[in-house]
């Protein structure tokens, strides 16, 4: 990460993954899961669903919806989050291609 000083304050440019910047284990997994949860939150709001309605539609309990919307998604797998998005009317596309470097990267594009 790149550091610089602005108005006597040291500023460090992030890597693009706040979880990695904080030194958390499984940072890539957390980044992907958080992106999926953000989209689920947007979909629930856009559709005007209550937590109970969203839970029924996604196949999870209302308490899990509540936790998810508060940012607690540790107990949900990426696969489950993708299934929730499918049930809210989203298509998910996974693209696999050869990497330019010896070790590949995992990226999620939401949009």
Give Rg in angstroms: 17 Å
**Number of distinct beta strands:** 2
Q: What's the average pLDDT? A: 89
Helix content: 40-55%
List segments where confidence is low: pLDDT < 50 over at least 5 consecutive residues. none
Number of helices: 5
What is the rounded distance between the termini? 26 Å
CATH class of the domain at 26-87: Mainly Alpha
CATH topology of the domain at 26-87: 434 Repressor (Amino-terminal Domain)
Keywords:
single chain; 111 residues; mainly alpha; 434 Repressor (Amino-terminal Domain); two-stranded antiparallel ribbon; 5 helices
Brief rundown of the structure:
This protein is mainly alpha-helical and about 110 residues long. The protein is about 45% helix and about 5% strand. The protein has a domain at about 25-85: lambda repressor-like DNA-binding domains (434 Repressor (Amino-terminal Domain), Orthogonal Bundle).
Could you explain the architecture of this structure?
The structure is a single chain. The chain is mainly alpha-helical. The protein has a domain of 62 residues: Orthogonal Bundle (434 Repressor (Amino-terminal Domain)), CATH 1.10.260.40. It is built from 5 helices and 2 strands. A two-stranded antiparallel ribbon has the order 1-2. Strand 1 and strand 2 form a beta hairpin. Helix 2 runs parallel beside helix 5 and helix 3 crosses helix 4. The longest helix has 21 residues. The radius of gyration is 17 Å and the shape is globular. The chain starts with a strand and ends in a 24-residue tail after the last helix.
């Amino acid at each position: 990460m790149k550091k610089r000083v602005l108005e006597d304050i040291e500023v460090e440019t992030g890597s693009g993954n706040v979880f990695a910047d904080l030194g958390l284990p499984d940072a890539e997994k957390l980044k992907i899961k958080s992106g999926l949860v953000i989209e689920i939150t947007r979909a629930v709001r856009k559709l005007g669903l209550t937590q109970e309605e969203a839970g029924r539609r996604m196949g999870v309990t209302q308490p899990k919806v509540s936790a998810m919307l508060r940012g607690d998604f540790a107990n949900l797998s990426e696969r489950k989050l993708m299934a929730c998005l499918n049930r809210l009317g989203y298509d998910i596309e996974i693209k696999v291609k050869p990497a330019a470097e010896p070790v590949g990267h995992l990226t999620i594009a939401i949009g």
